[in-house]
Design brief:
Chain lengths: 112, 138
């Protein structure tokens, strides 16, 4: 019993840490997933981020390549004009050392 | 206290002390008259050598902490990658010059020693400038 209580405490602390880590989130409100965007003008991306206890800022990726670093946790940013065809836009939460913490939102758009 | 942040902080302490050592050591040596005892300059060379080693080791630690925590290295691109490469080149060159100084300076002329210290200072200042770019363009 004397061992059980500390173990329970440690487990509960670990669980609370895990829950806190889950608190990070990314929302891309525009463009919508699967939307068509212009192939002749830059695309505006509207997003909102909750970095959680591990995150610091976010990186925006276009087709797997890092396009820009976003230090504002919500707002609108502009992606360079996309070539005609399908593309994937991702926003990933990263820590202070710029390492993705595993929380991200990706959408597919088609430029045309 | 978060273990990962603690790791980053302790690594940053070593990294900063390394930067102070290489820059301060080289600046102090450049400021010394060449008639000063060479023993003092050898001590500074040893300090600078340790500083570059600390810079390199702590730089590796930053990556290692990220990898241990998330299974991947920091995600940097463009100018930041250039700045990181420049820092690594400065560290390698600075370490080499310091090691060479400690090994061979007995036979060097005063102008040769001066050139070595000027090079060290230039490398340290370049690495500091690159660090600033790496920090804010990542």
């Amino acid at each position: 019993m004397t061992v059980f209580k500390p173990l329970l405490l440690i487990c509960s602390l670990g669980l609370s840490g895990a829950v806190l880590a889950q608190d990070a989130s990314v929302t891309i409100s525009s463009p919508a997933d699967g939307a068509k965007v212009s192939a002749s003008a830059p695309t505006k991306v509207t997003y909102a981020v909750v970095p959680g206890p591990k995150g610091d800022h976010v990186h925006l990726y276009v087709d797997g390549g890092e396009a820009t670093v976003l230090r504002q946790l919500n707002g609108t940013t502009t992606v360079d004009t996309l070539k005609a065809g399908p593309h994937t836009l991702c926003i990933k939460v990263v820590d202070k050392a710029h390492t993705p913490i595993g929380v991200e939102k990706c959408i597919k758009v088609t430029a045309g | 206290m978060d273990a990962q942040n603690l790791g980053y902080a302790l690594t940053q302490v070593v990294h900063n002390l390394g930067a102070v050592s290489v820059t301060g050591g080289a600046a102090a040596a450049c400021g010394l008259k060449l008639a000063e005892p060479q023993a003092a300059q050898r001590s500074l060379a040893a300090l600078v050598l340790g500083g570059w080693a600390a810079q390199a080791a702590s730089g590796v630690c930053f990556g290692a902490i990220s990898y241990l925590g998330y299974g991947r290295l920091p995600d940097i691109h463009g100018i930041a990658v250039g700045a990181l490469v420049l820092k690594m080149v400065c560290a390698a060159a600075g370490f080499s010059v310091a090691a060479l100084y400690l090994a061979r300076e007995v036979g060097w002329s005063a102008p040769a020693r001066r050139r070595a210290w000027t090079a060290q200072l230039a490398l340290a200042l370049t690495a500091l400038a690159a660090a600033a770019v790496l920090r804010w363009f990542s």
